[in-house]
Amino acid sequence: MKRLGYAPVLAILLVGLSACDDVPPCENTWFMRDHRPTDCARDPGRRSHATFMQFESGFMLWVTQLDTIYVLYLGQSSPRWQAFEDTFEDGMIEYDPALNVDQPPYTYQPRRGMGLIWRERAEVRNRLGWAVAEYEFPFETIVQTAADGTVYIRERHGGLFVLDADGADWLLYEPDSPAS
Fold first, then answer.
1. Using one digit for the tens of pLDDT, what is the confidence trace for 30-76?
2. DSSP secondary structure, 7-76, as one string
3. Alpha-carbon Rg of the chain, whole angstroms?
4. Which of 43, 59, 67, 83 is the most buried (most CB within 10 A)?
5. Which long-range contacts (CB under 8 A, 24 or more apart) does 102-110 make?
6. Higher pLDDT, 3 or 150
7. In 3-state terms, what secondary structure has residue 111?
8. 58, 73 contact by CB (below 8 A)
9. In the prediction, which pLDDT does 178 show?
10. Helix (H, G, I), strand (E, B), or coil: what is residue 101?
11. Do the beta carbons of residue 124 and residue 131 sit within 8 Å?
């Protein structure tokens, strides 16, 4: 039996490696361990304080470092999510008692920045309904954007919100959920 030695194996390895030489490495790595997209991250990800509020038909997330409030709707109407700049300033009216006339029992009017969007944008208010808790839940998050514009937000329990670039859909992966 003839021995081939290491040269053919080394040649195969080098040929295999050279095929990857034209693929540039990603400048930014993904913050999440599971559910990573195949493309590169557009940014390194931003750690931020955030708050979460649940509504009858959706959620609001306020990410302080981005000064952005994300609105996620549970229904199938488009858009499924929207992002708004947080324009609330200390000293502004936090809520409008006049809106409480039609308030269902055990629901609440959101306050401050989330409340401002909810009060001033009837389409947001009508689609979300009322808040189901009196106050927001604070948490620490990381937000990162893919090259295609998809937004990834770490959820307050360790899950992952994935917001399609065009607002067409969003997903919530629970912590330790299997990849789909």
1. 999 888 888 889 999 999 999 999 999 999 999 999 999 999 999 88
2. HHHHHHHHHHHHTTTTSPPPSS--S-SSS--SS-BSS--EEEEEEEEEETTEEEEEEGGGTEEEEEESSS
3. 23
4. 59
5. 103/130, 104/56, 104/130, 106/132, 107/56, 107/131, 107/132, 108/132, 108/133, 108/134, 110/53, 110/55, 110/60, 110/136
6. 150
7. coil
8. yes
9. 56
10. helix
11. no
In this predicted model, which residue has the larger pLDDT, 99 or 5? 99
Residue 23 or residue 107, greater confidence: 107
Token pair recorded at residue 19: 């095929």
Q: Which residues contact 50 (CB under 8 A, 6 or more apart)?
A: 61, 62, 63, 64, 138, 139, 140, 141, 153, 156
* Residue type at position 128: L
Buried b (16+ CB within 10 A) or exposed e, 42-62: beebeebebbbbebeebbbbb
How is residue 150 written in tokens? 């998809």
Domain regions of the chain by residue span: 46-173
Closest CA to 151 of 88, 89, 79: 79
